Structure prediction request, 402 residues.
Amino acid sequence: MARNQQQNEKMREDRIKQIQAEALHQFANKGLFATKIRDIAEGVGMAQGLIYHYYKSKEDIYVELIKNALDKMNAAVLMLKETPLPPHEKISMAIKQMLYTIETSEDFTQTCRLIAQATNSTAIPEDAKKLIEEKRDLPYQELAKIIAAGQKEGTITAGDPKELALVFWTSLNGLAIYKATRREHTSMPDPGILINIFLKE
Amino acid sequence: MARNQQQNEKMREDRIKQIQAEALHQFANKGLFATKIRDIAEGVGMAQGLIYHYYKSKEDIYVELIKNALDKMNAAVLMLKETPLPPHEKISMAIKQMLYTIETSEDFTQTCRLIAQATNSTAIPEDAKKLIEEKRDLPYQELAKIIAAGQKEGTITAGDPKELALVFWTSLNGLAIYKATRREHTSMPDPGILINIFLKE
DNA sequence: GTCTATATCCAGATAGAC
DNA sequence: GTCTATCTGGATATAGAC
Prediction:
């Protein structure tokens, strides 16, 4: 009996993961409003009504995805923060890593697109707005700290750390979104171009 | 009689301009699907049904705005191309100009947002897709040419001109969109940060 | 040109059988 | 858990009076 309950629990979780994966794909490509519950259900291969066995509403799916996306992004930044490297190497590693991930991981570019869409729309669920408000600043803040530390060591270009962090994040984000819409036709620029913005000589 | 016809024609054009201005505002903030015809009509101060005296459908308004937005962007790039300045000064002028315009013109940031949304969604009208396909590459191409010319003169950093153009355009675009969502709280970075990417020493 | 009223459609969400 | 059928609301677009 306990075994069965565990199995059921696992099946349920698998289903939820399927729905999430399909919904991320659809939302990233079409946005919240153009994506229909039917699209998600068909993508997963289940009846339209069955979605409501797992989620209360379309908005609920969306909010959960937004939360996951922001958390994933922030976790990556905190990981970078904890990495035992000098600041300027953190920066160049982060740039290389992100460009590589943009190039190779569709899931990552979709996550970027989801966040970008949500950030740029006022027509998203109230809960999603709150999450964004709460969580979106962390990358800028952490980047700014790393940059300031590097400037103290004399390895990173002079300039307002916050402004440099802003350029860092918006540039890479812009590239991720660009890439997402031309997957086959384009490759990312040489990391050196971006690294030059931040590192001395 | 001819006078009256002219007056009527002008009134009609004014109405259309009102609708366009309101629609740009709404679409930029909420996207195509979350914007309701009623919202636009209310914004202009007319009855919902009256919109259809001026446009056949919501999609038609959207497609027209997309066209205008892309044309405006491309016209600015072609203007830059024709400016009688050496390449490296074109680049630094363009950066300064764009950062200033982002900071001061809400219409410009809305135009950027509209294009960004449309570019990043597969759920837009077929006609809008065609326009984007046709027109969106021009800035990258012209920038790349200017950069290549500057490299020949030895005033612009080495590197693949196309990649540099990509960084140029995605960075500024990313900043415009960032700014749009935090209008009061943020200012643009020092142009020098971006200029340093492109100019030698 | 402008409005009100309405036809029509579509999608989110629910009910209930299996 | 899963499906089919359906209720319901809301939005586009049209019709027709003023």
Remarks:
- Chain B touches chain A at residues 29-35, 113, 116-117, 119-123, 157, 159-160, 163-164, 166-167, 170-171, 173-175, 177-178, 180-181, 186, 189-190, 192-194, 196-197 (CB under 8 Å).
- The radius of gyration of chain B is 20 Å.
- Residues 36-38, 48-49, 51-52, 56-58 of chain B lie near DNA strand D (CB under 10 Å from a C1').
